[in-house]
């Protein structure tokens, strides 16, 4: 081991002093990497997180393809090999084999990696659950009532015991009022990824499932005043906003998400998000829509609620 | 041009008959591509959309790096060059130069490309449009009827004049039948970003707006047989699938998207996607649901339909 360390330090130095066009190669430490398992993977982002062993030590290796830059295009087009996959009318697809130096893969090695590193990068599979109105009553509601996840932090916000300085807008009405504040995921540095949450002052509305036509004044109020507050504070009109609820929500106190249209906020997919405008329309035409309808949502493999659905033979 | 076409047809044939390990190279048509401008770019997705000229014809070239697959890892680790960028404590980063055949770039060429194609790929701001049933009749429908974007390529698929070998499953019934095939966006190398499209044999159903309870047998058929075909071919159960329609769709011939749950496919956001299971439920309880309901969807700043909504004072 000690010898190896010396060798690596040398390689470091050499690279620091490397001449252009004659860049020294690092020792390919990955040649001896033994994959244990793939922790996670993104086809969209072209990345993969791998757990394995590097010289008998636990290691995590992260590979991520690099963005295609405009200044590499001319060379990429002239110096690559092209293999035809498909042709139909004016459309054709190919596989392009680029010169390696134009098409690098960003590689991050964590070694030795602790169990915490491994867990951090471990992706959980998700499953789509189909929940009928009866499933909600017999499986989900008892689970929500028993679960211990505290929403004290929500009450702290509503009572100004915490985050009071972060509030963007508030309507104090106990029935239709709400607090609007930035979501933690938003750094508030630019509106391109604007993300705010409206939390109702009314307590006891757990989720979409509890909503009936009785709640229409509350929903209208959040929709209208939330949009107006965002227009005033961030100059963003309602045509640039995606306003929606989650089902399942991550906490069971009614809240509404306001995100910028075009920003692909986590959880804005059709499998989890419900546009507030649709919710209002559906309740207008059927007061019991969300009590009776079958709802679909993803759950992670390690979610306790998923086990409940499995135990009930519903998955 | 004629000569070129003959050569390409030959290449097609050769690839169809290609032997493993001795795959024929396509003519590198991109060597003569002249970039006009970059239409859009995603650092997150490692893709770039380029407008330019190919033998004096307008063309759009789309480059997208391919996902890193688990089965390529062993070879990738052993056969790559590694260049150290940074080392700090247990963390180090490198640039990895992979063998070209392990690190291909998916390339799509549209040629000749129309102005509409160029616009389609040009990055634009989007606006959320609110379309009532009346708006559809007075604004959207006349626009669809007048627009010139050809769907000949859809008919080519249905008539087996193109992409016949890509078909994963087909139900030939003229009323409830459909063709299931991989979407262009999917390279079919791993199921993690599975993306298939079911295209109905029945013609004349433009979109969600045309659906009534009459179409329930068609929708049920696509849902059930599409899921069964995916289970059989890719071993992916329905609990791992997100099955949905787009509104507005990108072409006005009814089609259904099947994507892997957890893969954030472009267009799977709540503002554009409608779960097929929800569509079926909504039509079951109200046969005219999609004819009468106000629908919300994003439109790009340069979309002609957006101008129509503006002209009508609806935005």
TrEMBL record, chains A, B:
<feature type="active site" description="Nucleophile">
    <location>
        <position position="255"/>
    </location>
</feature>
<comment type="subunit">
    <text>Homodimer. Associates with components of the exosome multienzyme ribonuclease complex, such as EXOSC3 and EXOSC4. Interacts with NDOR1.</text>
</comment>
<dbReference type="Pfam" id="PF05652">
    <property type="entry name" value="DcpS"/>
</dbReference>
<comment type="function">
    <text>Decapping scavenger enzyme that catalyzes the cleavage of a residual cap structure following the degradation of mRNAs by the 3'-&gt;5' exosome-mediated mRNA decay pathway.</text>
</comment>
<dbReference type="GO" id="GO:0006397">
    <property type="term" value="P:mRNA processing"/>
</dbReference>
<keyword id="KW-0508">mRNA splicing</keyword>
<feature type="binding site">
    <location>
        <position position="183"/>
    </location>
    <ligand>
        <name>substrate</name>
    </ligand>
</feature>
<keyword id="KW-0539">Nucleus</keyword>
<dbReference type="InterPro" id="IPR011145">
    <property type="entry name" value="Scavenger_mRNA_decap_enz_N"/>
</dbReference>
<dbReference type="InterPro" id="IPR036265">
    <property type="entry name" value="HIT-like_sf"/>
</dbReference>
<dbReference type="Pfam" id="PF11969">
    <property type="entry name" value="DcpS_C"/>
</dbReference>
<keyword id="KW-0507">mRNA processing</keyword>
<feature type="binding site">
    <location>
        <position position="185"/>
    </location>
    <ligand>
        <name>substrate</name>
    </ligand>
</feature>
<dbReference type="InterPro" id="IPR008594">
    <property type="entry name" value="DcpS/DCS2"/>
</dbReference>
<protein>
    <recommendedName>
        <fullName>m7GpppX diphosphatase</fullName>
        <ecNumber>3.6.1.59</ecNumber>
    </recommendedName>
</protein>
<dbReference type="GO" id="GO:0000932">
    <property type="term" value="C:P-body"/>
</dbReference>
<dbReference type="GO" id="GO:0000340">
    <property type="term" value="F:RNA 7-methylguanosine cap binding"/>
</dbReference>
<feature type="binding site">
    <location>
        <position position="153"/>
    </location>
    <ligand>
        <name>substrate</name>
    </ligand>
</feature>
<feature type="binding site">
    <location>
        <begin position="246"/>
        <end position="257"/>
    </location>
    <ligand>
        <name>substrate</name>
    </ligand>
</feature>
<comment type="similarity">
    <text>Belongs to the HIT family.</text>
</comment>
<dbReference type="GO" id="GO:0140932">
    <property type="term" value="F:5'-(N(7)-methyl 5'-triphosphoguanosine)-[mRNA] diphosphatase activity"/>
</dbReference>
<dbReference type="GO" id="GO:0008380">
    <property type="term" value="P:RNA splicing"/>
</dbReference>
<keyword id="KW-0378">Hydrolase</keyword>
<keyword id="KW-0597">Phosphoprotein</keyword>
<feature type="binding site">
    <location>
        <position position="163"/>
    </location>
    <ligand>
        <name>substrate</name>
    </ligand>
</feature>
<keyword id="KW-0007">Acetylation</keyword>
<keyword id="KW-0963">Cytoplasm</keyword>
<dbReference type="GO" id="GO:0005634">
    <property type="term" value="C:nucleus"/>
</dbReference>
<dbReference type="GO" id="GO:0000290">
    <property type="term" value="P:deadenylation-dependent decapping of nuclear-transcribed mRNA"/>
</dbReference>
